[in-house]
Model the fold of this input.
Amino acid sequence: MAEVHEHYQASSATYSEQYDESKILTSEEYPANFFRLKRIKERVQALGLTSIYELGIGDGSPLAAMAELGLKVGGSDLTEGMLDVARAQLVAKGFDPSVITWGDIQDRSTLEEGIASGPYDGVMALGVLPHVRDEGAVIDNMSAFIQSGGTLFLQFRNSMLSLYSFNRLTMEFIEDDLLKGQPDEVKEIVRTNLEPRLAMDKPPLRTGTKGAPGYDEILAKFHNPFELKELVENKGFTDVRFHWYNYHVTPPMLAKDLGPTFRTAGIAMEPTTDWRGMFLCSAGVIEATKV
Ligand SMILES: C[S@@+](CC[C@H](N)C(=O)[O-])C[C@H]1O[C@@H](n2cnc3c(N)ncnc32)[C@H](O)[C@@H]1O
Done:
């Protein structure tokens, strides 16, 4: 499996396009990050946070947005190319680039400088959890940036969408998660009967270009929201709530058949806050308060 930073190094120069509001309807990919950031900005303002630290800052767009809201910010990332773009973005927007450093969310020893610059009112990691091996250690490391009463924002890829995708991921979810621990004969009869009804050739694997690995060639896990909630609570957080985003109004494989409506109908659902997000969204953000 390729290294995570190799994938992000290759996308660092163009990553900011994902936050370009003028391209919401025309960008190649669905503007999921734009809507994620919009929701987090709303929550940060509603909670009255005055400072926030971000792990895995990417091109710096979320961090710059927080600085523009008037928050004190700090951040780190694993990928040098992303840090260069993020520093340039902070400078261009009139903010101090020295608040960001190299750091690995999985390695506490690389985060001490950032932790010492706090405590912060909030801590966030968006688009990072899919790439980590030890989720518990990551939540502990994030927790070190805030005090009791502080807020955690933790993004994850939602495994529940697989119940609406009717493809290879559905079969994997049923076999590995729903039927975990069941005898082989149970799994066998379910697999034999369901596989012909599912699009087992989908989703297509996202492979790399120009020598860099694609998203599906690096560690890029899904998480179960129920399990993640439990883990966050076990790590000393309470008042857990979910913010769902990246709505799929049809199963993803029908997006092309539906055409532009897939995107416009999805965008229209982004402000939704009811239970459907758990099944229609490819991602979510956990918000929780440190006890
Ligand atoms: C999907 S991007 C998201 C960037 C940014 N948080 C945003 O929301 O736009 C993921 C970022 O996490 C970084 N990353 C991946 N694994 C990491 C790790 N172990 N420690 C710190 N950063 C990491 C990548 O380099 C990349 O910049």
